[in-house]
């Protein structure tokens, strides 16, 4: 007969998933089954708990005694059953050592944390007097016995996570001591020649160890009295090596945990043990910032504790002055990025430790605050994360509400980590995806109703909170320090706020503090919104190459827009706009200047940043200019559109949304539209001045150079030639005078002082250069080229593209020059020689004094000039017979040369990649510096910004330079073969 309590329905309600197996197991428990049933239903995995209890009863020498004890004492029953339901590994241990179930009958387990010395003594007693192999196994059994007690207390009495972690750390310290004792027995009498201290690092050192974790250590040794230094080093190394193996080796009783000594000076490459003097020498001369951050948790735990304390005292001043070291900010930011970068992609969303919103986010932020402020405030130096967080909160470095929320989130994440590892005593930080595992973990955390749903909801909530607070933690108290607002929250002093800013990477932290004061002072709505925005903005500024410029630019734009209603609300409500703005301001002076001149452009950052077509731009510019009566206001209207579009292209480039070819094309189309609209304004102006109703001639503007090649960069002039064709019956002199006036008016209007970057119209490539007429007729151009022109002028015409003005004039001009620049039979060998001679002269005479020929972007070896002259020589020689070469664009000509077999695949690819690379670098330099330059910046911050624009990770400016040299070196090899014929 089935009793109601053990019916299938009741078993399912209690949490059993396999009621048939549970019924069979309960039958084996006899009269103990029904009294224990409700308690089984409160365990993490009732099925595993009942199965484990059956196994334990079968293994126990007195099973009746075991079951009766569970029935008689609910505390004992809950400790045993909770352990069996939550930890498969400890259940297996109990079955191997069934007598240890009695450890869980101790009524003091629920209320008393065991003393560290008592745990240590029990571990030492376990190994004392035993042969080596027996001692190693005994150490494991005793370690598990004490771990049983800790886990049972944790599961049943829901220990505070820091209490459980501290108990596990004490147990680890005692285990290291006992393992060292076994190591001494292995070494024999000579062991007394060395004093050896074991320094716990990381979680163990901070008294916050997990159930399963590597135990990070550093070994310090000294010679015992009367012993030689050499002997002491040899013996200490033996002791340390044996200790590591004793804890890490697998035996019949399993393993304990790995002992990891890789945090020692020089890591794996360094000696396993060092003296205090050797450690001091390393830390004073060679140590990286992260090594001092690691020493924050150093604690002497085993061996010669007096020697260990001496080591800790030696390192303490170094730890608390680490924030003053050169490169502190860069090192800490790089370490933070490495943590994220090392997460396998398949684990990123379920990584409890390293993932976004994980344990490391909390620990990193807390430690960074400690390092910045701990030198002056000893209260915030505790090595344990939650203790340090509490002191940071009490000291006003973290807001009270934020401190409480972060404490709750971290405690939850550590508890989840403990439950995750406890099941099989494996070192893991990846939250499983299968429902059975999630159900077990959720129930172990007392989520008995809907354990999977509540666990996931709670975890996601805390992840979001940790990420939010991680971003906010370093910045919010800073604003509280400068915002003159009432409230009970403690505030940072100005000095502490300056230190915080310096740690973020601000070079002029005092000025940065003044900017924050100006932005956040007062009780206005604007100031309130700024206080909401700035914590996140400061984080973005800090991650960019120039935080000072970012904050200063943001202040100027904010003051410019003042009370504009959409500005701050857009930044507050549209995160993408705020992030893009922060990145632009802290990376590019060019974009910042444009934003300061065109602050309305902030709105554009939330939309499509691809360049507009020339047709759309021309239509808008013409419409804007036609609303103005006078030429100057009309020109300013055109230039305002150009200014806005320069910002669009620069922003798209900086944010990696458009390709370098798109940048060149976009800037060229923008110049087309600007010249087209300005040509119309200039024509109206000249006709009005001269009282003309109609123009006596039709005009066109021919793009030349990089403009003609559709390859403009941000700092390029607009190289052009002006051409006109008189109307039938018009007086040639009057037509020429009119065309000359229009051309001059175009140049004047575009050169007028204004808030936008100037567009210099350079007509020096015209026949006879500056000495020749500014404007010529089609017939005049034809006559000149037929009689006077040289090979270099035909070369210049390769990039001629008649793009602006009267369509008929443009078409006739290109038809006239095509036979000249694309000769049917190519150029002669004499012409080839002349081209090479001119290039040699350019190489020797035009490189600026002091410029590095290896890195100059335009005229250096493998630079733009090398590549473009090589392509143009191929065009002059073969375009007459290869139609694909008849183009003004370098990349198109390269593709055509490869298709025609004039370049092999590798050479063509190399020139193409190098041209794109150098063009990108050239654009990036202008974006960073705000003015054109053909040389890589020497300033470290500017060079880092160039690397960032090119997509390199932080701290990679050297890698960027090395890549640049490699590209240009390989390109030069191709140029030597193809252009010079070497």
Automatic annotation (TrEMBL):
This is Bifunctional glutamine synthetase adenylyltransferase/adenylyl-removing enzyme. The keyword Oxidoreductase does not apply. It holds the Pfam family GlnE. InterPro entries: GlnE, GlnE_rpt_dom, NT_sf, PII_UdlTrfase/GS_AdlTrfase. It is an enzyme of class 2 (transferase). Gene3D superfamilies: Beta Polymerase, domain 2, Nucleotidyltransferases domain 2. Residues 1-478 are annotated as: Adenylyl removase. It comes from Nocardioides mangrovi.
